[in-house]
Amino acid sequence: MEANKIVNISYKDAARLIRANTPNILGENVFLKEAESTESLDNDLVSDKSAESIAPIMACPTLVASVNILDEDDSYTSSRIISDGEQMVFIAPGLNGYIASNILSGQEAIATLVNRIDTGVPTFSAGAAYEMSKQELFTLLAAADLYIRKRMLSQLGHTPNEMVFNTEELVYILKSELEHGDPRWLVSFINDIIACPNEILSENAVSDSLLRLSETGLINSGLDCLAGNGLLFAVSVYRRICAMSILIAGAKEDGTIAKQSSVLLRGERLLWFIDDATDFNGKITLASTGTYEAAELLKEYFRSEGKPYINTVKFCGKCGTPIKAGEKFCMGCGAKL
């Protein structure tokens, strides 16, 4: 059976194909890590559509996306989107795993994501657009998270608190948030899709990053507090309405896989966009944008150009064990093939 020509595959066989082929796309089973067997995967995936309509999309994806959303009330959801180039399946958290729910067109899927960041209140552009290294990005994120902590302590204690920092505090914030992985803090939230480089976890490295950030005006010349658009960014984080991280792997025309990591952060009146282009030019982009522009970016990201190469996989009809060429009996249950 050729994967790209699957038409009426059973749901169980589709689950097996997903288990066998998805790691070739993202290097891991991107939508159901908890499943330890084909049986549990079958039980966890429940569809409101027929298996015949969802299975081919999930078995032969041209694009796989992981979407993590942190809402204003600190509720955190992690979903997956799988596309065959025409339709998309949402894989969302359920009570006992993930649930394959909707089949949408690309336009409908993007509108669903944009609605999460569109509050109905227009955003304005701060005229901010910066390119920076990963070290500089995580230094800025640590400064923003530290700003929020100091502001919260000031409010709780009913006392003024100068929003200044030093390199020792920033290194502590980085190490603490990376260790605990609490997605309510920006360093942890973004580290899930843009890995924080280990080189930044020293005072000298943070000091160097602060110096470079001060040249852009995001940090003051004294290197001890946020300034200009850097302060606006931190206030947006503090008054966060929604933060959305998106990790996409899509097929290129030659069948190879391209990856894209981005974050959308919606404050009260500002929408910030973080794009990881380090594989292309070694830089991270941080910019303020509008809802319409964000939708256009998502359209581009969710556009798959080709079909990825997927090996043909055969399984035992009784136990689901992969079958190697030439085998006459299943190595899992002993059934005759």
Write the layout of secondary structure elements.
Blueprint: H1 11-21, H2 23-26, H3 38-44, H4 51-59, E1 63-71, E2 76-83, E3 87-94, E4 97-105, H5 106-117, E5 129-132, H6 134-157, H7 167-180, H8 186-191, H9 203-216, H10 228-238, E6 242-251, E7 257-266, E8 271-277, E9 283-289, H11 291-301
Antiparallel strand pairs: 1-2, 1-6, 2-3, 3-4, 5-9, 6-7, 7-8, 8-9
Helix pairs in contact: 1-3, 1-4, 5-11, 6-7, 6-9, 6-10, 7-9
Short description:
With 337 residues, this protein is an alpha+beta fold.
Annotation keywords:
2 domains, about 35% helix, alpha+beta, disordered N terminus, 11 helices, about 325 residues, 9 strands
How many structural domains?
2
Q: Specify the biggest β-sheet.
A: 9 strands, antiparallel
The percent of residues in helical segments reads 25-40%
Q: Outline the low-pLDDT stretches.
A: 1-9, 22-50
Question: What would you say this structure looks like, in words?
Answer:
This protein is α+β, with helices and mostly antiparallel strands and 337 residues long. 36% of the residues lie in helices and 21% in strands. The chain has 11 helices and 9 strands. The protein has helices spanning 11-21, 23-26, 38-44, 51-59, 106-117, 134-157, 167-180, 186-191, 203-216, 228-238, 291-301; strands at 63-71, 76-83, 87-94, 97-105, 129-132, 242-251, 257-266, 271-277, 283-289. Strands 4-3-2-1-6-7-8-9-5 form a 9-stranded antiparallel sheet, sandwiched between helices. Helix 1 (11-21) packs parallel to helix 4 (51-59), helix 5 runs antiparallel to helix 11 and helix 6 crosses helix 9.
